[in-house]
Amino acid sequence: MNKTAVFYGVLVTIIVIALIISSDLNKTPDLKPVFADSVTAQILSPDTSNTYGDNLKVLHGIHSRAQLLNVMRGFTEALGVKCEFCHNTDNFASDEKIQKRTAREMIHMVANIDENYLDGPRMEKVTCFTCHRGQSIPKLVVER
Questions:
Q1: What is the CATH number of the domain that holds 43?
Q2: What's the pTM?
């Protein structure tokens, strides 16, 4: 094989790889979170009692560590944050962080939307992820 054929072969290979990578970067990722539905289920649960966890003011029907962790995973997934974003990790029940108090207000908002505006048989419930999309501060418009 001559050098020209090798050169063009390598060039075509590089172009094909670049096109594949480019098309993957432009795809909209599958953004369906795994745990977001757990949050909505606990917010809207008709069981308003909690037998597990301390200082749970807006979550309902928490009766095990697994339930509580699934809900907390929903928050971390929806906001792209870790526990310490809302919690004092030395005292998870503490209300000292503004983010935790804000989360409670947002939970009330989500529950209000779900209960009063989305009651059709084919309507999806909203979650924290609906607006936040994995970011602590939701972006309301697409940045260019």
A1: 1.10.468.10
A2: 0.70
